[in-house]
Amino acid sequence: MGALLATPRGWVESLGTLVKFFGRVVGEVLGLRVLRFFGEALRQAGILILSSALVIWSLCFIIGLQCGIEGAYFNRSVGSPAYAGVFAAWCDLRELIPYAFAYMMAAKVGTGIVAELGSMRISDEIDALEVMGISSMTFLCATRLLAAWMVLPFVYIAGIGVGFLASYIAVVQQIAEVSAGGFSLIFWMFQNPPDLLYSLIKAMSMATIIVLVGCYYGYNAGGGPVGVGTATAKSMVVNIVLVHLLGMLGTQVFWGANPRAPIGG
Amino acid sequence: MMILTGKTIVSALRPPYPYGGEFISQFLFALRLCWFPLLVSTVAFGYGAPGLQAANFLVLFGALDRLGGFFVLASIREFAPVVTSIVLAGVAGTAITADLGARKIREELDALQVLGVDPVKNLVVPRFLALMLVTGLFDVYALLFGIFGGVLATLVNGAPLGPFWATFFTNASTVDLWGSVLKCTGFGAIIAIVCCYKGMTASGGAEGVGRAVNQAVVIAFLGVFSFNYVFTQTLLATHPEILAIR
């Protein structure tokens, strides 16, 4: 029992240091000290676009297909195949695309940052930066956060588009029980710009947390090559739990009291 | 990776079977690592995504009792296996890759081979079997807590639980349950093979291990979701009776 409870207890302990680290990095970005290294931030943004965007979109695509077929079969079973668009709109926009985005962010970008910063830490490159008079926290962590904030909203919105396209393919082309026009009518009726904004806020808060967790575990890695691997694995655990909690919180705050659906009064 | 899969299955079946102890320790390792993240994730997911959103939708029609029936579709068929596989890949899978990768770059795997110990039989096979078993079992655990999330959503809406359970049990079918568990076992196999392969082919020092973990998670996620799509599609198309709303 003691061994079982050791994990959660360790988490509570490390939560404090985690929050302190987050505060410092966010302070560096919002205090505009990061602008001294704007070139580095742009380079990180380029890396995000070139190496991660496509992988994120491919997961969004698969999830969109999934939503599409589940929605189409469910609506067929209640005798309203024409309403498959509701399922596609809600499932994609509100819940699953943010989750898919966050999962892939955690897997690709989060662990990537840990691996990169971790190997810098254990080969003493971070200490070398400090010796040269460059604030390593600003140069390594704050630039990555700024890059994420600059690029990811657009990557995310494109991801939603990819998910919608996949749902359309699954519902209209594959299952083929509703016409393209009928799908579009219902699909656009059941969403509006505030929904997109809420979904964006939800996904961006997840992405921020993922980048910060990645920076924390990479920056504080130790214990040789094995340590980098363990830190990478650990960051993934923390990311998964935080992503799910944020997802639940976002749903509760944005849609918990108001379903925002064009039905009834 | 396909070659590794073939080798793993062949050497799992062919005697002798020296991997019993390692199998048990890996099984307990995955169990100890995953139970808490999985608990938090499934309750949060079950409460947020299918719970609140579907409850919102159903409340508009005054048909909140149908939430139980919806949870059969949402939790058993989709979310429980998917969330289980995400957590297992992210937690146990990454740990396996980090472990095997570290052994690879410290040349322990080569040393094993020199000693005449087959790394596939003694390291990969127990992890493969343990992860498959543990993912299948965790699916049931995820189901319970996912439905607990649904119960929370019902209670938040101030509705009684009796109708929730009534529609839940009339809509639940054994096909759904075995489909879910089978799917999840398949996920476990994918995760184990990808993570072992990436760990055993890690190279290039510290950064290599980190990069191996990174690639392992990405490939495992994509593999799991693609398999999920194909499996769900096949299950829904071949068993139309599970779609009937009762």
Quick rundown:
Helix content of chain A is 85%, strand content 0%.
Query: How many separate domains make up the residues of chain B?
Result: 1
Mean pLDDT of chain A, to the nearest integer, reads: 86
**E-strand count of chain B:** 0
What count of helical segments of chain B does DSSP give? 8
Structure in words:
The complex is a heterodimer of chains A (265) and B (246). Chain A is 85% helix and 0% strand. With 265 residues, chain A is mostly helical. Chain A has one domain. In chain A, helix 1 crosses helix 5 and helix 3 runs antiparallel to helix 5. Chain A is elongated. Chain B is an all-alpha fold and 246 residues long. The longest helix of chain B is centred in the N-terminal third of the chain and has 41 residues. The mean pLDDT of chain B is 85. At the A-B interface, helix 1, helix 2, helix 3 and helix 8 of A face helix 2, helix 3 and helix 8 of B.
Give descriptors for this structure.
heterodimer, A: 265 residues, mainly alpha, 8 helices, B: 246 residues
Set down the secondary structure blueprint.
The complex is a heterodimer of chains A (265) and B (246).
Chain A: H1 2-30, H2 38-77, H3 84-122, H4 125-131, H5 136-175, H6 180-189, H7 193-219, H8 224-255
Helix pairs in contact in A: 1-5, 2-3, 2-5, 3-5, 3-6, 3-7, 3-8, 5-7, 7-8
Chain B: H1 2-13, H2 20-60, H3 67-105, H4 108-114, H5 119-156, H6 162-171, H7 174-200, H8 205-238
